[in-house]
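Before any further analysis, we paired sequence with structure tokens, yielding the entry below:
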Amino acid sequence: MKISTKGRYALRLMLDLATYNTGEPVSIKDIARRQNISEKYLEQIISALNKAGLVRSIRGAQGGYLLTKPLKEYTVGMILRQTEGDLAPVGCVGEQGAECDRRDGCVTVRIYEKINEAVCGVVDNITLADMLDWQNETADTYTI
């Protein structure tokens, strides 16, 4: 499985919202500047996240976006599935696995199921709070 630019940017966007989570809305313009990502592209991503209820839009001059849940309730898998869809490595496994006439006699499907379980086991157990902690650890380590 390869995560697209859209998925990677969604994670960066959500981490930025977590970093600047002061109770005040965060503008897409500010996120775009800090993350060096096109504002137009972030608008497409935030729209999907907003429709999914992961963020809340505030209109007006002081508007922007807010997270709708505590950081520990967001998983990387939750965020990626909103931009990537099913994270399965092939179409015949995963949450939306397609019907396959060969499945009963297919040995390789076991491999794909194990890959899917491993990926989901990772992304569904890392939270936005974990990512923020890791970011803060990185920021705290510097040398003179």
In short: The chain has a mean pLDDT of 91. The helical segments are 5-19, 28-35, 39-51, 76-84, 108-123, 128-140. DSSP finds six helices and two strands in the chain.
